[in-house]
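Batch job 17 of 40 flagged for manual review because the log was empty.
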Amino acid sequence: MERCACRRAAGQDEATERRELRLQLVDQLFEPDDIAFVERRFGNTIGHLLAGVSEPGAEREQILLDAHERFLEVAVEARGAHETDPGVELVDFAVCIDTAVGLAHPPATEERRLAAVASPRINLHAERKTKVYEMRVNRTAAKPLPTPSTPQRRQFRRRLLAWYKRHGRDLPWRRTDDPYHILVSEIMLQQTQVDRVLPKYAEWLERFPSLDALAAAPEVEVTAAWYPLGYNIRPKRLQTIAREAVSRYGGQLPADEETLLSFKGIGAYTAGAIRSFAFRQRAAILDTNVARVLFRVFIGKGDPKSHAMKRHLWTVSETLVPRREVFDFNQALMDLGAMVCVARNPKCLVCPMASACRSSPTTRART
């Protein structure tokens, strides 16, 4: 189908505001009774017409237009069942794109497998007349997620740091402030337990003692050195980071968050770990263990895996980070999640946060 003739030359008898939409058969795949056309008188608001639907190819179906309600000007171009013009992108066509434009006989559309159009465009912001439907919406506001108060933050920090001084793990990457060593440990600890990382960490640093050494090493050698930790995408990420650090930053990892996040393979958690552990900056972290601790202690209810909850937990983590002892605080958070507030069968009886935790058995019993 194609649009034939629309605007009449000035001086003809017919009024200038009258527009005729005529659909002419141009493809032999169509049958005459499958094609219909609608003539409507368009108002003087022609200057505010909608952008319309451009080049639809709803094969062997008629398009219904209500020009009085929508002020639509439509161009229609037919195409064969298996062909289209160059540069025309075919997309799925909803049976009805709004109250005024749609395909007639939806069952026939589905049966004939002809519900497709080329590049539909409708300006929903132009002036138009349309039907108004009543829609009831539940406007009950969701309860805001709880955040720790100032006394709660102080108590949490004090208890956590006291517990860490007595029970914190002695790990080799906690005895250095070398950003590269911190980076290696964090990448290795992704999806891998500490006892498996310990021997490989020392071996890796002996073979690749610096970012320069890692950047210059053959990729096959780097992958082989990672065995048997698994997840072999990680050594490739490490080497990519090393090469970028060498080429752009003189073989050093930068200290600012924005630049760290620009490295492919360094996310929000790893950037926070490097900043707090290597540069002693006040930076929040949120890995699986930390998220579990913060959710149980301060939230207690809801879906801990939802995007909204994760964003909120990042906020909680940022508010908890102290101005001093950042290194110990973040390490303590990870140790508490790995040793006490574990995923299954948490050790609530020995947890330093048990009396204030929203998820502990004693707290739930009181509420």
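Reviewer: the log was empty due to a logging misconfiguration, but the result itself is present. DSSP finds 14 helices and eight strands in the chain. Unflagging and moving on to job 18.
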